[in-house]
Model the fold of this input.
Amino acid sequence: MSTALGAELIKAKGVTKRFGALVAVDRVDYSLREHEVAGIIGSNGAGKTTFFNLLTGYYPPDEGTILHKGVDVTRMTPQERVARGLMRTFQLTSTFDNLSVIDNLVLSFFRAHRKSSLMHLLLNTCKRYRNEDKIVAILETFDLQDVRDRQVKHLSLGEKRRLEIAMAVLAEPEVLLLDEPLAGLAESEIKGILDVLGRHVGKQTILIVEHKISHVKDFLQRLTVMHEGRIIADGGYEECLRHPEVRRSYWQIDVSANENEHASA
Ligand SMILES: Nc1ncnc2c1ncn2[C@@H]1O[C@H](COP(=O)(O)OP(=O)(O)OP(=O)(O)O)[C@@H](O)[C@H]1O
Ligand SMILES: [Mg+2]
Done:
């Protein structure tokens, strides 16, 4: 992909997180630039989600520093990081299952842009903002027009996942962090998610954790492989897959899980 990368948004320096004797994230150095579409893969327990949680501020690291645009955010809470515009994971976004798709989007829009109380909003103002330009545009981008008035509890899993990501995108985070956004989805639904995410390439910095690398390999500009808390490879897809330590520690574990075609890549 030809997108020019911008300034460095996130920098992790020597970040470590321990759970008792277990070192879940082990002296990780990582940086992410504006407009980059990057992925992290690794086998179960590699430390991917823990690393995400360190970036979002869910956990403070035991050691190391996390910078956002050069500012030290290591001790900031998730809310303070979101307030800086840093990032939003779709897991932080909860849907209201008894409300329609469009009203969930309106609420998400409000949470990001206005200070009104949620209850006041629910009772009085949903209707008025259903035609807000940004909301109409996001319905289209995420292929949700046909289900806009459907209650969320009646959506398919793929539609719900698209809604969750749409809600995160509406908050206009600098970095969209997605931890296994394809988990549990059928092939056809996966294609739908990748199509809509593809529309944000070049406009949005995206960091995605994924188990099934075959699904996202065409989508990512850069791949990072974690194993036992450490980053063992970082770079292009082919480069990472050829890396001896990746072949040894990642593929040997995952090769059996429908990935045979990629083991020989
Ligand atoms: N809250 C916690 N308390 C104790 N141990 C934890 C906690 N969270 C994670 N771990 C351990 O830390 C290690 C890394 O876990 P993590 O969830 O970050 O891995 P992961 O790469 O996201 O794995 P998966 O692919 O299964 O999602 C694992 O050994 C896990 O059991
Ligand atoms: Mg995980």
Observations:
- The beta strands are 8-19, 22-33, 37-41, 63-68, 71-72, 87-89, 175-179, 205-209, 222-227, 230-235.
- The pocket of adenosine-5'-triphosphate (ligand 1) is lined by residues 19, 22, 24, 42, 44-50, 211 (CB under 6 Å).
- The chain has eleven helices and ten strands.
- The chain has two domains: 1-92+173-265, 94-170.
